[in-house]
């Protein structure tokens, strides 16, 4: 695409009009800087809001989508497309913008390099006129730009890789949806309160122990109204359906056990033989100031046993009662081989704190599942009085039938309380010791009381009690993923810094372009007046040249070591061409800039690493001047472009050998040479003149109707066959060479001088 100004501007002598790609202009690159700043601010703001508000926006659970097809299983485009495709689309637009800026910088870098050159400070051709980063892969172009000291371009290309392979992929995971509970103040109904006035005479303790066996011993779901440690009231929000989390202040009740092992030295054990296979084990001990005793019948078959006892006649100072657990193992000879006695003091507590209930509707089963948790903030001892005694006595009345043959093993536990303790130890695969007994008792006995409280001490109220609590409804909120956001911010900050430096760089580094170089015509316009075409002509004159300047040269070597050949750097046809220097000179008109290239030492043998014949030390600027003034292109030895194979014309060899004409011209002394033309510096003036010593005359501009390479000027005559060339604006004639022919034939043509005194001579005019 070509971008042109709508109003033409004539260049003034004081200021030359400069062109720059629209993406590199000083009003466009700041837009890229502003876009990067906007992305940094947007991501930072969303990241802060996401952390502060647990997600920066609610997106809901309902799928909002468009059906592109109605058949079953058709793709449904949900809201996820909004927070995945939109960020990627935004970053994609930014990437296109930045890539356009970098692409323009890649194109204009050689022209910027030329703008910094001068005859006193030339630049190498490989860094300017013989440079195009677009022909290389991006990763190779990065290395080339750094090697050529185009550091800002190299950095920008590297950052383009980071942008494409890092920034864009990360954008797809910048946002993520997650369910959150955001509590808010609400009115909560308390559906039941603690009340111990319920009669316990008809309490079915066996069913309570069955629930303990299922939920606590075998770890099934807990019943409603307990979290495993506390029994509490039931609460619910005033109006809400579905999933929710409700919290409210309430009181709870629990029982704890203070258990300790009674030392063997304080325990008295007596064995009473009842029959040959049965004995009665009697034990007595003192625990923390309270005397406890009990007995258990057991078989002398090598099995063990566990007995639970209740002692309720302890003093007030020692505690009201003791619940004891005696474990022993009998040998087949009727000897007690092992015994452990654990004594516990129960305590009843009233706790106050915050009750939180998570209500979940199971869509598969249709059941409502409550998951409560009570966070106690304080505890108070509670005296249940007769209720406590009824509970303690009732637990000890539940018996088991033949427990030794049950699934728990061979441990004899006549009471159901002891049997639950045995089941807990066996379920965990533990051995019997004082510690395992204490852990099992601390789980089982309080659980029985918790089931009693849930069933009898929290009756449902006829009128719920309204209290102020909190209600948290699950919300599907959109979050900013922290690692992704931080990584993107780091990349964007680096890109922002590089763009800011690029703006400064472009302000101080203009290019030589006056307009957009469009195609081959644009390149030809840039090279008008340049000597580059004459230098390249030497490559084309050789018959071996196949059109490739970068063609690899094959060297003749007697070394048969292929590995050494591979390690050796390969020579190419354009190696010396890359090392040449070039510069910019001012033309006669204010807008005119001429690209000049050093033409010395440019002879090469194409087969051995060079591309030309003998070196006459003649500078390329003189040949360029000759081409511009005379309108034809010849080589230094007088041959026309095309090579030696065009020197002969079939049927004319004899004629060419005989037709030698004298050219009569006026000679001038070297001291009377006029000044050099525009753009021709001291280098051309100091070049050596080919031998034999030539006669030089100033070269005036020929008339429009006169063309050809050889002209006769001056008021006197000189005889001889002379070869005419241009050196620094002068005609150089050598009497030892005669111009040859070119394809198409030749003829002599008289040429009239522009001087007042007319001389006569003949020159050769070629036809193509």
Automatic annotation (TrEMBL):
Domain of life of the native organism: Eukaryota
A Pfam family recorded for this sequence: DUF3433
Keyword Transmembrane helix among UniProt keywords: yes
Region of interest: Disordered: 549-573, 599-656, 670-704
Pro residues: compositionally biased ranges: 691-703
Residue intervals passing through the bilayer: 24-49, 81-107, 152-176, 478-503
Keywords: Membrane, Transmembrane, Transmembrane helix
Compositional bias ranges of the Basic and acidic residues kind: 642-656
Entries under InterPro entries matching the protein: DUF3433
PANTHER family attached to this UniProt entry: SPRAY, SPRAY-RELATED
Protein name (database record): Uncharacterized protein
């Amino acid at each position: 695409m070509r971008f042109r100004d709508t109003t033409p501007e004539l260049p003034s002598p004081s200021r030359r009009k400069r062109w720059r790609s629209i993406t590199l202009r000083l009003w466009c690159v700041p837009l890229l800087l502003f876009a990067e700043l906007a992305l940094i601010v947007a991501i930072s703001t969303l990241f802060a809001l996401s952390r502060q508000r647990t997600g920066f926006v609610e997106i809901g659970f309902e799928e909002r989508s468009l059906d592109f097809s109605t058949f079953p299983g058709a793709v449904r485009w949900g809201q996820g497309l909004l927070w995945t495709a939109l960020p990627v689309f935004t970053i994609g637009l930014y990437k296109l913008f930045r890539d356009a800026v970098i692409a323009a910088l890649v194109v204009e870098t050689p022209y910027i390099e030329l703008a910094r050159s001068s005859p006193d400070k030339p630049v190498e051709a490989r860094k300017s006129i013989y440079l195009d980063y677009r022909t290389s892969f991006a990763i190779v172009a990065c290395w080339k730009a750094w090697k050529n000291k185009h550091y800002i371009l190299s950095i920008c290309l590297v950052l383009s890789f980071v942008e494409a392979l890092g920034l864009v992929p990360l954008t797809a995971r910048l946002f993520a949806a997650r369910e959150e509970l955001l509590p808010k103040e609400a009115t909560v109904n308390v559906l039941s309160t603690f009340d111990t006035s319920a009669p316990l005479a008809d309490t079915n303790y066996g069913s309570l122990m069955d629930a303990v066996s299922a939920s606590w011993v075998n770890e099934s779901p807990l019943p409603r109204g307990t979290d495993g440690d506390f029994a509490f009231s039931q609460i619910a929000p005033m109006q809400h359906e579905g999933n929710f989390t409700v919290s409210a202040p309430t009181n709870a009740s629990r029982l704890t056990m203070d258990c300790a092992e009674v030392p063997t030295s304080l325990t008295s054990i007596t064995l009473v033989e009842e029959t040959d296979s049965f004995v009665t084990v009697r034990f007595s001990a003192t625990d923390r100031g309270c005397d406890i005793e009990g007995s258990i019948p057991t078989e002398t078959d090598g099995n063990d046993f566990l007995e639970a006892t209740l002692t309720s006649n302890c003093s007030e100072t020692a505690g009201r009662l003791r619940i004891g657990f005696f474990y022993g193992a009998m040998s087949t000879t009727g000897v007690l081989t092992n015994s452990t006695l654990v004594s516990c003091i129960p305590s009843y507590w009233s706790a106050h704190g915050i009750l939180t209930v998570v209500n979940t509707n199971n869509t598969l089963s249709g059941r409502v599942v409550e998951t409560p948790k009570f966070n106690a903030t304080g505890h108070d001892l509670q005296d249940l009085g007769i209720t406590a005694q009824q509970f303690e006595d009732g637990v000890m009345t539940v018996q088991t039938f033949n427990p030794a043959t049950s699934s728990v093993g061979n441990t004899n536990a006549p009471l159901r309380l002891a049997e639950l303790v045995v089941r807990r130890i066996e379920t965990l695969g533990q051995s019997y010791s004082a510690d395992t007994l204490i852990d099992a008792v601390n789980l089982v006995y309080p659980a029985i009381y918790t089931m009693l409280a849930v069933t009898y001490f929290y009756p449902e109220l006829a009128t719920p009690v309204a209290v102020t609590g909190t209600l948290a409804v699950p919300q599907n909120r959109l979050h900013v993923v922290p690692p992704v956001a931080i990584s993107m911010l780091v990349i964007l900050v680096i890109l922002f810094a590089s763009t800011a430096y690029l703006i400064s760089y472009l302000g101080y580094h203009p290019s030589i372009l006056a307009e957009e170089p469009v195609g081959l015509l644009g390149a030809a316009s840039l090279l008008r007046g340049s000597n580059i075409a004459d230098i390249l002509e030497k490559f084309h004159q050789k018959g071996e040249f196949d059109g490739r300047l970068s063609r690899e040269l094959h060297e003749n070597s007697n070394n048969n070591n292929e590995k050494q050949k591979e390690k050796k750097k390969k020579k190419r046809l354009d190696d010396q061409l890359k090392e040449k220097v070039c510069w910019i000179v001012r033309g006669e008109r204010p807008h005119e800039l001429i690209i000049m290239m050093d033409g010395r030492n440019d002879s090469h043998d194409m087969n051995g690493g060079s591309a030309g014949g003998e070196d006459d030390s003649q500078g390329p600027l003189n040949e360029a001047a000759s081409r511009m003034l005379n309108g034809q292109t010849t080589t230094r030895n007088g041959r026309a472009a095309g090579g030696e194979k065009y020197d002969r014309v079939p049927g004319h060899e004899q004629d060419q050998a005989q037709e030698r004409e004298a050219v009569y011209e006026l000679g001038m002394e070297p001291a009377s040479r006029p000044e050099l033309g525009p753009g021709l510096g001291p280098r051309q003036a100091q070049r050596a003149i080919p031998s034999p010593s030539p006669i030089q005359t100033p070269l005036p501009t020929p008339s429009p109707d006169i063309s050809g390479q050889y002209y006769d000027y001056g008021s006197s005559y000189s005889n001889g066959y002379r070869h005419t060339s241009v050196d620094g604006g002068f005609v150089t004639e050598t009497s030892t060479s005669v111009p040859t022919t070119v394809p198409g034939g030749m003829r002599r043509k008289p040429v009239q001088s522009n001087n007042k005194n007319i001389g006569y001579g003949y020159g050769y005019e070629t036809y193509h």
